[in-house]
Design a protein that fits this description.
Largest sheet: 10 strands, mixed
Shape: globular
Strand content: 15-25%
Number of helices: 14
Length: about 500
C-alpha cells in the first residue's frame, strides 16, 4: 500500500488554490395570522426534538406524525394526542390541511421525502445533510423553484443571534486581518457498532420496506437498528455528514459569507480503525478542500486518545468547531460560541449564547406566513452547498479507498502542478500525522501508521460533476438508483 509521508506533503503541497400533483395551497397562501399545521416525518431522537421546538412556536399545531416504526408512533402519539398518525409518509402528505412538514428521517430518505412533500404542496423543513448523493440534492433545489415552496435546512446554527456581529468584526472591521486558512475539527468519541455473524432482523414493529425506501436492500450486521445507520454508506454519511455538515456550514456562512458554493478540488485520507465492526464509514477522516480562495483542512475522528479511554484526542481549538487562522490572530467558532484571539493568543472578543435551536424553527414558520423565502436563515440552496462540501470530502475518501491498493497514477503526479503555501503544507502534514497517530494508538499491533492520500478530485461547479482524471471513480457516488417505487426523479 502506498503511504504519504510528511516529506511528500511538504514537497508536493496540497490543494491550495491560488472552491404526487401540486396541492391546493399555493406558495404563500398561509396568512400571517393563520395557524400552521405541521406534519413531522421521522420520530427518532431528532424528530422528537423538532416536535418540541416547533410545538413551542405560537400558532403552530403538530397535526400529524409519521414513522415506519409503530413503536415510535405510539410513543409520540401519547405526547401529541391530537396528531393524526401514519406509518407511510404518503398518507400524511395526502392531508389537505397540512401546510408544512419537518423531515427527520434517516439521511437516505431526506431528498425523496422533501420532493414528495413539495409535489404535494407542502413547505419543507428538512434535516441535514440534505443528501448522501449530490445529484439528489440538486433535484430538491430545483423543486423549490418548480413548486414555489419554502424549504429550510436544519442547520440551526445559522439562526444563532450573534452571527451578524461576528461577521462584521471579521469581514468589515477586519479585526484579525486577512483570513489565511481554516481548520475544521470534529474530535468526538463514539463506540463500536459491533458485528454480528448473522444479519440483524428488523424490529417487529418496523415496516422494513418503508424504512428502506430508496436505499439498497442489503443485510445489516450491526447490533442496533436505529441511529447506527449513520455509519453505513447505504443509509448514512458518516461523521462528515453528521457533525461535519454543521461545522462546514458554519465555515461557509461565517468565514466565506456563502461566497463559495463548491470546492474546486478535494483530497482525502482515513480509514476505520480499531473497532473491526460492521460500519464502513471512516472513524478517522482527513480532507483538504481547495475553495479557490481560502483553503480548508478537515480533521475528524471518533476514536479516543487511547483504547478504553472516554477522552477524545487533544486538538487545537474546539473539539467540534473550526479555527480561522488570520494574519493578525485567529477566530475559534463552535456551536453557541465564538472567540477572537490576537496574534499573541490573547482573547480580545467573545460571543456565547443560543445555538439557534428554536429561532431556526421560528424563522421557517415566519417565512411561510410572510411569503418570504429570501428571509430564510438556512435556505435549501445554501444547505445543498454546505452538504456538498461534506459529500465531496466523503467521495474523496472513498476514492482513496478504491485507488490505494491499485496501480493507478501516483497522487503526487496529480498535485505537483497545483502549487503550495509552505506554512499551510506544514500544518496540513502535521494534522495528517496526528490523525495517523490516533489511528495507530487504537489499532492493536501497529506502532506507527501513515494514512494514504487518495487522488485529487476536480469538481466542476457548472455541471456539478467531477472532471479530469479519476472523475469516474467519484462520479459513481453522485446518484443512487433508488428502489422500486422509491426513486428520486429529475425535476
Amino acid at each position: 500500500m502506498r503511504t504519504t509521508t510528511r516529506r511528500y506533503f511538504l514537497q508536493q503541497g496540497a490543494l491550495v488554490g491560488g472552491a404526487l400533483a401540486l396541492g391546493s395551497r399555493a406558495f404563500g397562501a398561509t396568512s400571517a395570522n393563520e395557524q400552521v399545521n405541521l406534519g413531522v416525518i421521522g420520530l427518532g431522537w431528532r424528530g422528537g426534538q423538532l416536535i418540541d421546538a416547533f410545538g413551542r412556536v405560537p400558532g403552530v399545531k403538530i397535526a400529524a406524525i409519521c414513522d415506519p416504526d409503530s413503536s415510535l408512533v405510539d410513543e409520540w402519539s401519547a405526547k401529541v394526542p391530537d396528531a393524526q398518525t401514519f406509518s407511510d409518509l404518503r398518507g400524511l402528505l395526502d392531508l389537505a390541511e397540512i401546510d408544512a412538514v419537518a423531515i427527520a428521517t434517516c439521511n437516505h430518505w431526506h431528498c425523496l421525502a422533501a420532493l414528495w412533500a413539495m409535489e404535494a404542496g407542502k413547505h419543507v423543513y428538512v434535516e441535514k445533510p440534505l443528501c448522501n448523493a449530490h445529484w439528489e440534492g440538486v433535484q430538491v433545489v430545483n423543486a423549490t423553484d418548480r413548486y414555489k415552496k419554502i424549504c429550510q435546512i436544519g442547520t440551526q446554527q445559522r439562526s444563532a443571534p450573534f452571527l451578524g456581529e461576528l461577521k462584521q468584526l471579521l469581514h468589515e472591521e477586519k479585526l484579525l486581518g486577512p483570513i489565511e486558512w481554516v481548520r475544521v475539527n470534529r474530535f468526538g468519541v463514539r463506540a463500536s457498532i459491533g458485528k454480528r455473524e448473522a444479519p440483524l432482523a428488523p424490529p417487529a414493529t418496523l415496516d422494513y420496506n418503508l424504512w428502506l425506501g430508496p436505499a439498497e436492500d442489503q443485510p445489516i450486521y450491526r447490533e442496533k437498528w436505529h441511529y447506527d445507520w449513520h455509519w453505513d454508506w447505504n443509509t448514512g454519511a458518516g461523521e462528515m455528514g453528521n457533525w461535519g455538515v454543521h461545522i462546514l456550514d458554519d465555515v461557509r456562512n461565517n468565514v466565506f459569507q456563502d461566497s463559495v458554493a463548491f470546492p474546486q478540488r478535494a483530497i482525502a485520507a482515513g480509514g476505520r480503525f480499531g473497532w473491526h465492526d460492521a460500519g464502513n464509514t471512516p472513524n478517522v477522516h482527513f480532507a483538504l478542500l481547495d475553495t479557490g480562495t481560502i483553503p480548508v483542512v478537515i480533521a475528524l475522528t471518533n476514536l479516543p486518545d487511547k483504547p478504553g479511554s472516554e477522552s477524545a484526542p487533544k486538538c487545537p481549538g474546539p473539539g467540534s468547531g473550526y479555527i480561522a487562522y488570520c494574519e493578525g490572530g485567529r477566530l475559534e467558532g463552535q456551536r453557541g460560541k465564538a472567540q477572537f484571539f490576537d496574534s499573541e493568543g490573547k482573547l480580545i472578543k467573545e460571543f456565547s449564547g443560543n445555538d439557534g435551536m428554536g429561532a431556526h424553527q421560528v424563522n421557517f414558520i415566519e417565512a411561510i406566513r410572510n411569503n418570504s423565502p429570501d428571509s430564510l436563515n438556512g435556505p435549501v440552496n445554501e444547505g445543498h452547498h454546505s452538504t456538498a462540501w461534506c459529500t465531496l470530502a466523503n467521495y474523496a475518501y472513498r476514492a482513496a479507498q478504491e485507488t490505494a491498493t491499485s496501480d493507478s497514477t501516483d497522487p503526487s503526479v496529480l498535485v505537483e502542478q497545483l502549487g503550495a503555501d509552505a506554512r499551510l503544507s506544514a500544518a496540513a502534514a502535521t494534522i495528517l500525522e496526528q490523525l495517523s497517530q490516533v489511528a495507530a494508538n487504537n489499532q492493536q499491533g501497529i506502532d506507527a501508521l501513515e494514512l494514504t492520500l487518495g487522488p485529487v478530485l476536480t469538481f466542476d461547479s457548472a455541471s456539478e460533476q467531477f472532471t479530469g482524471e479519476h472523475a469516474e471513480v467519484a462520479n459513481q457516488y453522485l446518484r443512487t438508483l433508488g428502489r422500486g417505487e422509491f426513486v428520486v426523479k429529475e425535476v
